[in-house]
UniProtKB/TrEMBL annotation:
MF-aspect GO terms: 2-methoxy-6-polyprenyl-1,4-benzoquinol methyltransferase activity
This protein's name: 2-methoxy-6-polyprenyl-1,4-benzoquinol methylase, mitochondrial
Cited Pfam families: Ubie_methyltran
InterPro entries given in the database record: SAM-dependent_MTases_sf, UbiE/COQ5_MeTrFase, UbiE/COQ5_MeTrFase_CS
Spans traversing the lipid bilayer: none
Entry binding sites for S-adenosyl-L-methionine: T100, D126, N156, A157
Class of this enzyme: transferase
A single cellular component GO annotation: extrinsic component of mitochondrial inner membrane
EC numbers for this chain: 2.1.1.201
Family membership: Belongs to the class I-like SAM-binding methyltransferase superfamily. MenG/UbiE family.
Classification lineage: Eukaryota, Fungi, Dikarya, Basidiomycota, Agaricomycotina
Compartments in which it is found: Mitochondrion inner membrane
Pathway: Cofactor biosynthesis; ubiquinone biosynthesis
Main subcellular localisation: mitochondrion
Length: 293
């Protein structure tokens, strides 16, 4: 087992119930969530998502390279470069839904290589211990292993345990290809706002909406036929990759997600590409940013 902080589920559960209760009062009816193209009970989604990432954890990095021909690396590089960690001095960062640590490693490398900064820290947070375990193994081979620069925490993005993840703590909150898997996006954004310092940055890298119709059609063809097939061949798991593709299509388009970020209290740029968000590869992926005021 790797050293990962586990938090008492009790406070998480209590807060979840409080949210659910508040929601139920104003909005009667059964609570549902999308799990890919399926509609499931809200309380079921978390376990279903967990099963997906339990199943893909060991093949996750290989599959990312195979399904995107390595392009996810370029997007992640661009995401981290755009944040320029270390420029204003060492930062306290939290990488949520951090999985195998791709973003955390890039943040630390960028700060060190560009600014000789060995004091920036990243806390990698994920709901799935197996994904974190893969990240831990990977960091063991780096100079950051056994330093205060990186740590791993098993926790839910929607209810970060307040005893550890205190209010107004972080300079930078990142979440890459993670938020669409969460049951309640507003709860994730609310937590991001809570833990960031005033002036801190929320930054999200996520698959998004392709606006060019021809490109969108080609991308759909590729995603729905090739990715689940690669899942079957390389990872022996078609269903998980089918879910991952479907979940991309269920994620809100750029302007809608930008509004959700503002609704959580952040300021964003103008509602356009190059403002509140920056499209990568025509919107296949997209970077959204917001600043806590
Ligand atoms: C597609 S992976 C992305 C991993 C990594 N950020 C990357 O870019 O390679 C999505 C991650 O989100 C995590 N996740 C899903 N729901 C979560 C939640 N509610 N709280 C925290 N992590 C969650 C999964 O366990 C998984 O590791």
């Amino acid at each position: 087992m790797f050293p990962v902080s586990r938090f008492c589920r009790q406070s998480v559960v209590l807060r979840r119930w409080a949210r659910r209760y508040a929601h139920t009062e104003s909005n009667a009816g059964p609570k549902t969530a999308s799990f890919g193209f399926k509609t499931v009970k809200e309380e079921e989604k978390e376990d279903l998502v967990k099963n997906v990432f339990d199943s893909v954890a060991t093949s996750y990095d290989l599959m990312n390279d195979a399904t995107s021909f390595g392009v996810h690396r370029l997007w992640k590089d661009e995401f981290v470069s755009s944040l320029n960690p270390g420029k204003k001095g060492p930062m306290k960062c939290i990488d949520v839904a951090g999985g195998t640590g791709d973003i955390a490693l890039r943040i630390l490398d960028h700060a060190r290589e560009k600014f000789a900064d060995r004091e920036t820290t990243v806390e990698v947070v994920d709901i799935n211990g197996q994904m974190l375990g893969e990240g831990y193994k990977r960091f063991k081979k780096t100079m950051y292993h056994n330093t205060p620069q990186v740590s791993f925490h098993e926790a839910n993005a929607q209810a970060l345990p307040e005893a550890h993840f205190q209010d107004n703590t972080y300079d930078l909150y990142t979440i890459a290809f993670g938020i669409r898997n969460c049951t309640s996006i507003p709860s994730v954004l609310e937590e991001a706002y809570r833990v960031l310092k005033p002036g801190g940055t929320f930054a999200c890298l996520e698959f998004s909406k392709v606006n060019n119709p021809l490109m969108s059609m080609l991308y759909d063809q590729y995603s729905f036929s090739v990715i689940p097939l690669l899942g079957t061949i390389l990872a022996g798991d078609r269903d998980s990759y089918q879910y991952l593709v479907e979940s991309i299509r269920k994620f809100p388009p750029q302007p809608e997600f930008a509004k959700m970020i503002r609704d959580a209290g952040f300021t964003t740029g103008k509602d356009e590409d190059g403002g509140a968000w920056v499209d990568l590869w025509g919107g296949i992926a997209c970077i959204h940013k917001g600043v806590k005021v």
